[in-house]
Amino acid sequence: MAVYNPKRYTWITKFYYYMVIWLLFAPVYYLFYRLKVYGKENIPKDGKPFIVMPNHLSNNDPPIISLSFNIPIAYMAKKELFETPFIGWAITMLGAFLVDREKVSKTTIRGAKEVLSKGWCLGMFLEGTRSKIPGLLNKPNVGPAYISNLTGVPVLPVGITGSNKKGGPVTVKIGKLFYPERDLEKARWHCAEKLAELTGLKVLPL
Description:
Strand order of the largest sheet: 1-8-7-2-5-3-4
Structural class: alpha/beta
Order of helices and strands: HEEHEHEHEEHEEHE
């Protein structure tokens, strides 16, 4: 099981990361899913880490985001994914580490902080799970805002459309960096509004 291991985040992991992205995922998503990426100019060029916050439509989303950004992103991923042989291998190669959605442990929080301290960006899906209702975002979690407030790093919203459709087309729209509000209840909806603007999806009401 891929719990956080600080020894994994070295140049060797980055080498595997780029090998997987460009040799395996690039042909699939650019050719067969017709991937289009907008807003790359919003990706910071200063090398400082930030939280990548996409919406979530399918298991295609992590490799699509990694391919769109072309920088090391460590994903906080649900433990069930690591139990599927190919998917578990793939996201481990992308630097993912485990989170138990039923009980987020101190180890997970420490892992998120240390990933950022090592210069990697942290991938966190705002909805926590895949959206099940067409046209709607799931109820947003406080996770990205909480980690942002805890570490002082900004959040970069990313809207994905089409990744849940076989053959796409897939569109990725990268927004602008922002710092969530300190009030986590307000911050979660602030984050959701950012993704709604990028995707055209509505936020699932309470």
